[in-house]
Amino acid sequence: MRRGLFLGGQLVIYSLLIVANESKRIEIQETNQDDRLRLRKHSCVSSRAGHLGALPGLFVDQDGIDGCNHDHGPAPSFSAPENGSTVKGHHGAPAQLHCTVQELHHRAVSWMKKTEDDLQLLTVGESSHTADPRISPDFTYPHLWQLKFNPAMINDSGTYLCHISTDPPLIRHIRLEISVPEPIVEIVDSLTDAALSSDRVLYYRIGSSLELRCRVKRYWIKPTRFHWLKSGNPVSDELWRGGISIYTEITKPGQLENKLSIANATINDGGNYTCSLDSFSVSIVVHFLKEEKQAASQHASNGGHSSVMENAFHQGMACHLILSFLLQVGISHRH
After folding, report:
1. SS3 breakdown of the chain: % helix, strand, coil, rounded to 5?
2. 16 - beta bridge partners?
3. pLDDT in tens, 248-283
4. Start-to-end CA span in the chain (Å)
5. Which of 82, 127, 129, 291 has a 20 to 30 A CA-CA distance from 214?
6. Phi and psi, residue 5, nearest 5°
7. What DSSP assignment string belongs to 228-256?
């Protein structure tokens, strides 16, 4: 009776292994000589409960024969990475761990995460065994096995095991370090898209439209505060007057932009403008001049770059001179 319960329990274990890894079929046969369970060559499976290799492909029978024909080729081995190597990534960005395996044959590659007192199984072969949709296995023929994080999070940091289902198992330890990088906050030129230095001064004509763009790079987490200040006061407090718009967008992964536009600007709109992202900020000074000539005279002191409206003014003057010249040429031909 006990023997029957034992065999029944073994069959249940093998059935669960088949469900967990449908790509490998286990055939069990009972011998008439000693009634011992043997596993045939469709999979290498071990009966050692609690063993690190207690995954599909690790059980052996009572004779210590694993049912696999090892004479058909060399044993599996790692060609990369080095044991104990470290992979670094950024919070919010994709990250991946690499494991290159030679001569794998019928065996399985698994990924695990080492915790304080346990091992967390993440993948077996190309099947995921975690409920976290960010984490997935990826295989590139013929040798590359990857564990991908999309995106990686700060709590993904830790030690991971690339595991080959031999007996004893072959293991590579890989350390994953995820950090939150310091972002780059800059105010950019609306025409050239180049970053403006903090000592730049922008000049605009009264009545023109002011447009400031604040760009943030390498910022992978959702900001709690991303706004514009003028002389220390939130620009959003003046939205009631109309003509002011503030627009924030994600231009690409890890990069944000905050655009401030003020239509029909007055002299009171001049001042020190600060783009503030949580604890990071950058500032620039804006002046409004009463006359176009005054604005044009500031071109040199503005680092050789005029504002958007100044450029439009210069282009208009050039077109006016060309048209006047053509008109004079046409009149002289008539005469």
Report:
1. 20, 40, 40
2. none
3. 998 887 889 999 999 999 999 999 999 999 889 999
4. 126
5. 291
6. -65, -40
7. EEETTEEGGGGGGGSSEEEEEEEEETTEE
The two three-digit tokens of residue 209, written as one number:
């439209």
Residue 60 has pLDDT above 70, yes or no: no
Residues 184-225 pLDDT 10s: 999 998 888 899 988 889 999 999 999 999 999 988 777 888
- The pTM (predicted TM-score) of the whole model is 0.52
- DSSP per residue over 117-174, as a string? S-EEEEEETTEE--S-TTEEEEEETTTEEEEEESS--GGG-EEEEEEE--SSPEEEEE
**b/e map of 293-306 (b: 16 or more CB within 10 Å)?**
eebbebbeebeeeb
SS3 state of residue 329: helix
231 in the Ramachandran plot: left (φ > 0), alpha (ψ -120 to 50) or beta? left
Asked if 216 and 277 touch (Cβ cutoff 8 Å), the reply is yes
Phi-psi region at 11: left, alpha or beta (left = phi > 0; alpha = psi -120 to 50): alpha
| Token code pair at residue 322 | 């060309």
Cβ neighbours for 321, distance < 8 A, ≥ 6 positions apart = none
Alpha-carbon distances of 235 from 162, 182, 262, rounded to whole Å: 53, 25, 10
Burial readout 263-284 (b: 16 or more C-beta within 10 A, e: otherwise): eebeeebbeebbbbbeeeebeb
Contact in structure between 92 and 254 (CB atoms under 8 Å): yes
Check: CB of residue 132 under 8 Å from CB of residue 113.
no
Cα atoms in the 13 Å half-sphere on the side-chain side of 101 = 26
Locus of tokens 């002289």: 332
Report how far residue 38's alpha carbon sits from residue 44's, in angstroms, rounded to the nearest whole number.
Answer: 10
CB distance 274 to 297 below 8 Å: no
**Which residues lie across from 78 on neighbouring strands?**
101
